[in-house]
Design goal:
By secondary structure, this protein is of the alpha/beta class. It contains twelve helices and nine strands. The longest helix is centred in the last third of the chain and has 29 residues.
């Protein structure tokens, strides 16, 4: 069954130096973009994994090399992720996403690579005011493109999620089951895996017409059922739509509660060994809470007609909450 699309659907797969989202990097990235109407476009990059602090190539872990068969030497002359970022973001622009088990690994890894570049690009602009106008213009352009890309806002169809829900097994088995009983060649190359994933999704739609809707919104909801705010799952939404911390000493508390009782916790997150995506989501919440605090102070002082201390502002907030039942 061909896909019914309102906007492009971008299937993707990556190979990496390892499985640690924080410290590992992408070495191969493949996109298969399906446009409304059925046109297919394919792009694959081999990438030199780059350590921005050490300014050196990252090594591939033995376990990862055993899976994908790519060696460090094969990547020496390849471009880095930062060299192709503009093209990658152009492919991502205005597209929903799809992959095989991508919601758990490939999407967080892709997001982290982009967030890592956001951080080091901003750091470069902040620490090199005397850099050439050409360099500053390119870095500013990259940073603006990254800021305009929000992977959390797009739909994500995880083909494995559909497969495991409907026929509780890996991509090879899914390909045999849905695509005619044969194995596909070059498994664990990013491009072969991406193309196979696209074919498996069409096969799933053919096999389960009574359960599955040929609609990206439905497929994304059906295949990726979590309420995580960040890809690492350190923050999640509760039933009231509030951000809740899911780990450590504040597990189960809302981020708003922790902001009020221990605001330094947000600095600890910013300086800790967390993904850049997790840090950015905590920072966004802190900015929201800071803004609400400023607005609350302004409202309280406007009502009282005089400057107020933090304690007086808090007391005014309690009185308003009691009055309006909040």
């Amino acid at each position: 069954m061909e896909l019914e699309l309102k906007r492009p659907l971008l299937f993707f797969d990556i190979e990496s130096t390892g499985l640690n989202i924080v410290s590992d990097s992408i070495i191969e990235l493949s996109f298969v973009k399906i446009l409304p109407g059925g046109e297919e476009r394919i792009k694959t990059w081999r990438l030199k994994p780059w350590d921005y602090e050490k300014r050196a190539q990252k090594p591939i872990t033995p376990g990862a090399q055993a899976v994908h068969g790519i060696s460090d030497g094969e990547l020496t002359d390849c471009p880095r992720f930062c060299d192709v970022i503009e093209e990658v973001l152009d492919w991502l622009k205005d597209s929903d996403l799809a992959g095989f088990n991508s919601a758990k690994f490939d999407l967080p890894m892709l997001s982290e690579e982009i967030e890592r570049l956001r951080y080091y690009t901003q750091t470069y602009l902040d620490t090199h005011p005397a850099a050439s106008a050409e360099n500053r213009a390119r870095f500013s352009h990259i940073l603006n493109m990254i800021k305009a890309t929000d992977l959390h806002s797009v739909k994500m169809v995880d083909v494995q999620g559909i497969y495991h829900t409907m026929e509780p097994r890996n991509l090879k088995a899914a390909y045999r089951f849905y695509c005619g009983g044969e194995d596909f060649e070059n498994a664990h190359s990013a491009e072969a895996d991406t193309v196979a994933t696209y074919k498996v999704l069409k096969g799933e739609l053919d096999r389960y017409p009574e359960t599955l809707k040929n609609d990206v919104d439905f497929l994304a909801s059906f295949s990726t059922r979590n309420r995580n705010i960040d890809y690492a799952g350190r923050l999640s939404l509760n039933d009231d739509g509030e951000a809740v911390i899911t780990f450590g000493k504040h597990k189960g508390k809302t981020a708003r509660e922790v902001y009020k009782s221990e605001p330094s916790y947000f600095s600890w997150i910013r300086n800790g060994e967390f993904t850049f995506d997790t840090k950015r989501q905590f920072e966004a919440l802190k900015e929201q809470f800071d803004r609400e605090k400023r607005e609350g102070r302004a409202s309280a002082e406007a009502l009282s007609g005089k400057p107020l201390s933090d304690e007086e502002v808090a007391e005014a907030g309690k009185m308003l909450s009691a009055k309006f039942g909040r």
